[in-house]
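testing teh design pipeline on a random one, pls ignore if ur not involved
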């Protein structure tokens, strides 16, 4: 699949891997928005080039290292990168997790991240459990000069909200999506009055195939890095089983193709934002005829 021409997608800063994924002096080849790219690392300096099939360089593109990951923008006019204040908190430990391949669109991944309704059925005994399936009302709004969608006052009962949890509890969530490919969760921490910060960073290989990277910024000290990593990977791999069964892979923006429920307020807000900015990559912007969704 050739590189997209969607200006909304091209202006995004997108993660292509954790910094530790990119070896010194060895070409790190991957794909982004349908375009083959190669990243070269020399010490703490990174260069990224668009390439053709035989690795012939076409042009150099913008690259940054931030939040433990390598970010790339294929446009000369990049949109501002998300600011995550918790990364400067010296009390927090960062655990990176990801590089997981998923056969779906990036927007399907972000929407699933925003969805609390599946917790009791997909993450049974961890993030939810029957019969506690009701989604309580919460607020959704657009912030940051129309660049981010926030869902606040979210609350859900969870049998095991984290590896350190020793009992079920109501867990407060705040969801933040920055652009089409980045989602951040602020979640009740074990430390009273504090929140953990969890990010999902999606690398769209093309419109229907992705790799997913992420991080967790923990405050509590009782959970090891390995335990925290295992917890996040367990949850995400449960999600992947569901995501890869969804059709169509690209997310429909015409609401009559997939009718949302009241509990899907965050998803509805995200889809409306995608439609409002004119997103074309990874979406079905128009009504799809019945029987043509496979």
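output:
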């Amino acid at each position: 699949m050739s590189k997209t021409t969607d200006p909304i997608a091209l202006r995004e800063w997108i993660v292509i891997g954790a910094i530790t994924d990119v070896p010194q002096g060895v070409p790190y080849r991957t794909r982004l928005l349908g375009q083959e790219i190669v990243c070269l690392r020399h010490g703490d300096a990174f260069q990224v080039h668009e390439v053709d099939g035989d690795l012939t360089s076409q042009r150099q593109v913008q690259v940054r290292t931030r939040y433990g990951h390598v970010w790339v923008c294929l446009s000369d006019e990049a949109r501002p990168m998300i600011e995550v204040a918790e990364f400067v908190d010296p009390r927090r430990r960062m655990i990176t997790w990801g590089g997981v391949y998923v056969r779906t669109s990036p927007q399907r991944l972000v929407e699933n991240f925003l969805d609390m309704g599946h917790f009791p059925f997909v993450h049974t005994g961890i993030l939810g459990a029957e019969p506690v399936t009701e989604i309580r009302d919460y607020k959704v709004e657009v912030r940051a000069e129309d660049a981010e969608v926030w869902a606040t006052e979210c609350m859900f009962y969870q049998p095991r909200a984290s590896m350190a949890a020793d009992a079920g509890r109501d867990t407060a969530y705040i969801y933040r999506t920055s652009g089409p490919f980045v989602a951040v969760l602020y979640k009740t921490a074990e430390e009273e009055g504090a929140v953990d910060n969890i990010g999902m960073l999606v690398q769209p290989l093309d419109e229907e195939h992705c790799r997913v990277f992420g991080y967790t910024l923990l405050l509590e000290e009782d959970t090891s890095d390995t335990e925290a990593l295992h917890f996040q990977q367990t949850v995400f791999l449960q999600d992947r089983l569901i995501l890869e069964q969804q059709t169509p892979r690209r997310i429909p923006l015409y609401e009559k193709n997939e009718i949302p429920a009241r509990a899907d307020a965050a998803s509805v807000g995200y889809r409306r934002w995608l439609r409002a900015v004119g997103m074309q990559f990874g979406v079905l912007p128009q009504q799809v005829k019945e029987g043509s969704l496979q």
